[in-house]
Amino acid sequence: MDSLHCPAARFSITCSYSREHKLRIGVGRFNRIVTAKMHGRILITADKSSRRMVPAASMAEVDSSTKTRIRQNIPTEKQLVDRFRQGMIVEGGVGYRQTVVIRSYEVGADKTATLESLLNFLQETALNHVWVSGLLGDGFGATHGMVRNNLIWVVTRMQLQVDKYPIWGEVVEVDTWVGASGKNGMRRDWLIRSHVTGQVFARATSTWVMMNQQTRRLSKMPEEVRAEISPWFIEKNAIQETPETIKKLDNTAKYINSQLKPKRTDLDMNHHVNNVKYVNWMLETIPEIFLEGYQLFNITLEYRKECGSSDTVQALCQPDEDGAQGVNGKIHIEQPQASEIGDAPSSESPLSFTHLLQITGDSKTEEIVRGRTTWKRKPKAIH
Amino acid sequence: MDSLHCPAARFSITCSYSREHKLRIGVGRFNRIVTAKMHGRILITADKSSRRMVPAASMAEVDSSTKTRIRQNIPTEKQLVDRFRQGMIVEGGVGYRQTVVIRSYEVGADKTATLESLLNFLQETALNHVWVSGLLGDGFGATHGMVRNNLIWVVTRMQLQVDKYPIWGEVVEVDTWVGASGKNGMRRDWLIRSHVTGQVFARATSTWVMMNQQTRRLSKMPEEVRAEISPWFIEKNAIQETPETIKKLDNTAKYINSQLKPKRTDLDMNHHVNNVKYVNWMLETIPEIFLEGYQLFNITLEYRKECGSSDTVQALCQPDEDGAQGVNGKIHIEQPQASEIGDAPSSESPLSFTHLLQITGDSKTEEIVRGRTTWKRKPKAIH
Description:
Two copies of one chain form a homodimer.
Chain A: E1 4-5, E2 15-17, E3 23-25, E4 33-38, E5 41-47, E6 60-63, E7 68-71, E8 81-82, E9 87-90, E10 95-101, H1 115-133, E11 136-138, E12 142-143, H2 144-148, E13 151-162, E14 171-181, E15 185-194, E16 200-212, H3 223-229, E17 255-260, H4 275-284, H5 288-293, E18 294-303, E19 313-319, E20 351-360, E21 365-377
Parallel strand pairs in A: 1-3
Antiparallel strand pairs in A: 2-3, 4-5, 6-7, 8-9, 9-10, 10-14, 11-12, 13-16, 13-18, 14-15, 15-16, 17-19, 18-21, 19-20, 20-21
């Protein structure tokens, strides 16, 4: 594994994962909590102060000695069912399934779940999977063995494919499971299905590596951690990945939004821009007329570096130019006709865009995340 | 009741409720769906095309004749329990309680539920209350009798008081119930409590009036609607209201953010800015240094007009100038010291701000919402 550097970053955690496999992580605002991110949100926290398990009546109680409120009742043994989270262990004892009702505020203008909601469901079920497994040390999914070894997870890749967006009030099941990724990595997959029919609405996969929170080095998976998590690994892929390197855009990209500044409400608990904001920034570069007629079918994200509250971000976007996807470098966007909009995927080739978010500084730019999105025509509006 | 006017607003619903009790509502993008809003989000929809009840296996199925997907399985009789939504009827058969786990993406930088999440819970439980009551015609909470009379709800006032923000993973119960408000209005209240201890975390109340979606006039409550909903009314107040008129700010306000433009993801299904965005715009006018040390204790909103996707908005904010809340018209914001930050409310007077969001046009400005916020010092950070 390559070395990791720790610049003095007092109020921010910065995490980059370059092609050369270098990882850099600064020091978090809360100095007892060092955290990696899950596709831009916080992912794994190893909180050294909280190694002890504190069984208590409440999930969150006031610790009278310190006046701080902490998460409690973290299971120390595998739970088969979590009635509050409507979760259960499936897949022969290693997978996790959670029933979720699409809430009124989780849908967009067309009454179907937003991409943001789907990404949130992925994060939530991943964390709840670790919660019910009995392996959770504390925080964002680090196991007891990881906490002992000062290890945290870092996400490097995320892919989500949406065949159909569930509608308001629909009951869906989110299944998630993990598997090996190479020798020292982990793959986490998800399926989102109709609770009633079992129809698959969405599939997702992600790749994770482990790093030492103190040395900032990528780490091999220690045997005690392997012993904890490998019994949960299964060989099952939600998406058959087609390894594809996302090309880096430059300032010749067709659509560019500059001077993007995170707002207070865009930040997560590490005071970093969360993933949903990343995706929103990416998609806001696409012309409105296109977004009205098309819906996202696939998004692939390659994470490079975290974005902090004081960063200024530039979003670049380039439509594919080949074949049906563009004409002479200019994407051909037609206002969809009512008769053309069906519920089934269109037979025409989907349209694709390449994306880049980068931090723009005085002297240099730094990549945050590269992305690829593929789109298909929207089904008819829901009445 | 005063008259209502319907300006030709092809792509937007505009709804104003002035002091003179005039309501104006334009025509929605989807011309079969006319909708009022619940504190800025969509509130009540009367969809004339969907009066029929369609029992079906799924909450959302493809109607093969039209290729549209619609909400189905809407209960036609009162349900005592909704296992998917983790809801149940309480309060002697007229109140609704829903158990909610605070999810990982519903918390902010301090690991406690965001104001946005709490406001979302209020909307969701209100709609689910109507859902389980068996009274839901379709859409956003209109009863069968309201649909027959082309009536929709319009929210005029909303108040939320937060004693304690629940933390990530905490299990809370949201109770909601309705009561009479004057002769023709309705009050809806909420309590958010710890599932384990019963401790009240937050209280909220709101006021609603009924209007005819076609004539755009405020309406008396028809007897058939009164017969439907009055059996659900109880005399119980979550907050003892202290009627207070929020003064209108002008351009002499201390903090002003201008040229605010809604983004695509800020819009709800009526292509209007949703309430959470309103609140965010309001709070973003407050200096960052203040927001770091204080948390919102009370917010009161008086709704005047909806904000559409093409509007340009100005947010005005004025700190209170009297007593402990300010010095010579300038709010005195100190960086809170660690020793001063406790979990209990501070004994010092809370700080207050007055807010106004208005649409700025070429010739005139139009009020969207007036607000008042009160703040207290934050408890210590959660580890």
